[in-house]
């Protein structure tokens, strides 16, 4: 896959002495959905801001579609769309006017037909003459997306697209991302939810404290780190795990009230049916069972342990 | 890629003008009423007891100064708010991430601010004709001074808007520096009427040069030479451009 975004040795040090980015190298291929995964303060937004031109990098170089973002900023920026984390729109403007403004700002001639299609796709058409101040938070976020897409960018950045967003909008957002990908738009999104990365992205880059820890295909990452846990809440507490259950790696928790079974989500057999059968044979009753996927936190802990 | 992002410049200019048109009656009523009040007080009540200044009736004498007064304050407030407000609300991110050079951004914002100032200046001139007989000896130079001053002080306002971190700072330069300098800049009197050392000190007030040159274009007489007026205004404009160039190059208070 030819790359649309090349980042080489990008560093950002603030005058306060804070290092936001400590040397980032990254290639994003044309047409892929790339998720930048990391905790708050990892440097995700700083990296996006540098590429989009709202933060100046200390050193390094970035090209977008082969255009250097500093030397050839016009050509580079004309192909980029940005949906920032915070909602920031002129609240007195109407939906139509603010989207038209963005298109013009990015150098494109007016195209009412395209903007109409865009607003319809985002369920904003009925609200086109409403002023931003009259819209709900979710609607404002849709307007932010419409503005970012107004000039038909090739590379779209979505900074925390689903933070503080309701289920409907989240589903719409995911549908939109897939539709854009089908049109050939490359999407880079940041998130701290691993489910989101898993659901949407072709590839995932994990970033922490200004450094990229790893870049993997999403499937490979889930395979590597996708541990799952089965939690059984017991009817009667146990003091020790019976020897008959030695085939399963089990842990006793909550003063013997909980039995925890960790297994590989990608393995051919999970071992759950056998475990439950054996528990039945042993007459161990449980009142509740719950399974959970390893969280991003676990992945970080394991990554940091390895490095 | 075209050499100039004219669509981008036009988008900002148009939006800025639309913002002014939303409150068009307010934008027009304020200067008209203020000017009318000045004429009633200074032109009618006080002016009738005053002798001519340099062969010009007092009422007509204050017209250029009044226009200049409004031009300066309007240019500075229009341009400073135009850039400060996006900074305050966060919408500046879109301007900074657009394929727009610093020159184009300044052209669009300052162009819109200066357009508004010139319009208000002309409205005041029109209002003045209802109260006094206004003669303009050098109409070309009158327009030139009007444009030059509007552009220069819109640039100055733009700098204040980038520099300001809060609303207090946004207001402090106009109210603490510009307004006193304007009042002491000979809008309502000729500096020849001042006793020494105030007359000499006045020559260090930049507004004296603006008012004087503008008054010359109306009545053919000014406190200082026209060349000095033009030279000063142009010099201040170059200074503002240099500061803006530096601000954009370093990302001063725009980009972390």
Describe this structure in words.
The complex is a heterodimer of chains A (307) and B (256). Chain A has ten helices and 14 strands. Chain A has helices at residues 44-52, 73-78, 95-105, 112-121, 137-149, 167-182, 194-200, 218-225, 272-281, 296-306; strands at residues 3-13, 19-29, 33-37, 59-64, 67-68, 80-83, 155-159, 186-191, 203-208, 211-217, 227-234, 250-253, 258-264, 286-293. In chain A, a hairpin with a 2-residue loop joins β4 and β5 (67-68). The mean pLDDT of chain A is 88. Chain B has 256 residues and is mainly α. Chain B has one domain (6-250). Chain B has ten helices and no strands. Chain B has helices spanning 6-22, 24-46, 58-89, 92-96, 102-129, 139-163, 167-183, 198-202, 206-219, 226-250. The longest helix of chain B is centred in the first third of the chain and has 32 residues, at 58-89. The model of chain B has no long low-confidence stretch (mean pLDDT 88). The A-B interface holds A 14, 52-56, 73-78, 80, 82, 84, 86, 88-93, 97, 100-109, 147 and B 1-2, 5, 7-8, 10-12, 14-15, 18-19, 22, 86, 89-91, 93-101, 251, 255-256. Chain B: Belongs to the ABC-2 integral membrane protein family. Chain B: Its main location: membrane. Chain B: Keywords: Cell membrane, Membrane, Transmembrane, Transmembrane helix, Transport.
Catalogue the unreliable spans of chain A: none
**Could you describe the largest sheet of chain A, including whether it forms a barrel?**
6 strands, mixed
Question: What is the class of the largest domain in chain A in the CATH system?
Answer: Alpha Beta
- Beginning-to-end CA distance, first to last residue of chain A: 29 Å
Question: What is the average per-residue confidence, as pLDDT of chain B, rounded to a whole number?
Answer: 88
Radius of gyration of chain A: 24 Å
- Cα distance spanning the termini of chain B: 28 Å
Radius of gyration of chain B: 19 Å
Beta-strand residue fraction of chain A? 25-35%
Strand runs of chain B, count: 0
Query: How many alpha or pi helices of chain A?
Result: 10
Query: What pair of chains forms the biggest interface?
Result: A-B, 34 and 29 residues
Category from helices, strands and their pairing of chain A: alpha/beta
Domain ABC transmembrane type-2 (chain B): 22-251
Subcellular location (chain B): Cell inner membrane; Membrane
Membrane topology (chain B): Multi-pass membrane protein
Transmembrane segments (chain B): 24-46, 58-85, 105-128, 140-164, 170-189, 224-248
């Amino acid at each position: 896959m030819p790359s649309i975004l090349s980042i080489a040795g990008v560093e950002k040090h603030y005058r306060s002495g804070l290092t936001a980015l400590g040397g980032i190298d990254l290639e994003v291929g044309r047409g892929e959905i790339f998720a930048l995964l990391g905790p708050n303060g990892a440097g995700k937004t700083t990296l996006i801001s540098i590429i989009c031109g709202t933060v100046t990098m200390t050193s390094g170089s970035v090209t977008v579609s082969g255009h250097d973002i500093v030397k050839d900023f016009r050509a580079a920026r004309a192909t980029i769309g940005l949906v920032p984390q915070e909602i920031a729109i002129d609240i007195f403007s109407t939906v139509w006017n603010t989207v038209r403004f963005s298109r013009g700002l990015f150098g494109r001639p007016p195209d009412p037909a395209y903007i109409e299609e865009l607003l319809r796709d985002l369920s904003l058409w009925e609200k086109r003459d409403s002023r931003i101040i009259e819209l709900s938070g979710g609607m404002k976020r849709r307007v932010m997306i419409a503005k970012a897409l107004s000039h038909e960018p090739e590379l779209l950045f979505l900074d925390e697209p689903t933070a503080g967003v309701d289920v409907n909008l989240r589903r719409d957002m995911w549908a939109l991302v897939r539709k854009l990908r089908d049109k050939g738009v490359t999407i880079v999104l940041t998130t701290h939810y691993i489910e989101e990365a898993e659901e949407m992205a072709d590839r995932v880059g994990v970033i922490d404290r200004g450094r990229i820890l790893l870049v993997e295909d999403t499937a490979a990452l889930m395979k590597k780190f996708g541990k799952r846990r089965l939690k059984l809440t017991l009817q009667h507490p146990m003091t020790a795990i019976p020897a008959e259950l030695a085939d399963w790696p089990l842990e006793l928790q909550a003063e013997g009230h909980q039995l925890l079974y960790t297994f590989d989500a990608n393995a051919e057999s999970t071992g759950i049916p056998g475990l439950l059968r054996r528990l039945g044979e042993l007459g161990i009753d449980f009142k509740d069972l719950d399974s959970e996927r390893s969280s991003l936190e676990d992945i970080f802990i394991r990554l940091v342990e390895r490095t | 890629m075209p050499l100039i992002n004219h669509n981008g410049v036009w988008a900002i200019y148009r939006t800025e003008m639309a913002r002014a048109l939303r409150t068009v009656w307010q934008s027009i009523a304020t200067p008209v009423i203020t000017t009318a009040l000045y004429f009633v007080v200074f032109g009618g009540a006080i002016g009738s007891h005053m002798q001519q200044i340099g062969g010009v009736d007092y009422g007509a004498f204050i017209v250029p100064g009044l226009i200049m007064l409004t031009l300066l304050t309007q240019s500075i407030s229009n341009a400073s708010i135009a850039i400060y407000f996006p900074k305050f609300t966060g919408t500046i991110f879109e301007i900074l991430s657009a394929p727009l050079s610093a020159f184009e951004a300044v052209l669009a914002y300052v162009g819109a601010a200066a357009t508004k100032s010139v319009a208000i200046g002309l409205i005041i001139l029109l209002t003045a004709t209802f109260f006094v007989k206004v003669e303009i000896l050098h109409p070309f130079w009158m327009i030139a001074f009007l444009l030059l001053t509007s552009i220069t002080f819109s640039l100055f306002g733009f700098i204040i808007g980038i520099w300001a971190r809060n609303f207090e700072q946004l207001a402090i330069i106009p109210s603490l520096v510009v307004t006193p300098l304007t009042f002491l800049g000979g809008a309502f009197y000729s500096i020849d009427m001042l006793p020494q050392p105030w007359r000499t000190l006045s020559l260090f007030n930049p507004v004296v040069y603006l008012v004087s040159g503008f008054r010359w274009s109306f009545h053919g007489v000014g406190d200082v030479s026209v060349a000095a007026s033009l030279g000063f205004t142009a010099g201040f404009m170059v200074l503002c451009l240099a500061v803006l160039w530096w601000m954009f190059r370093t990302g001063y208070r725009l980009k972390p």
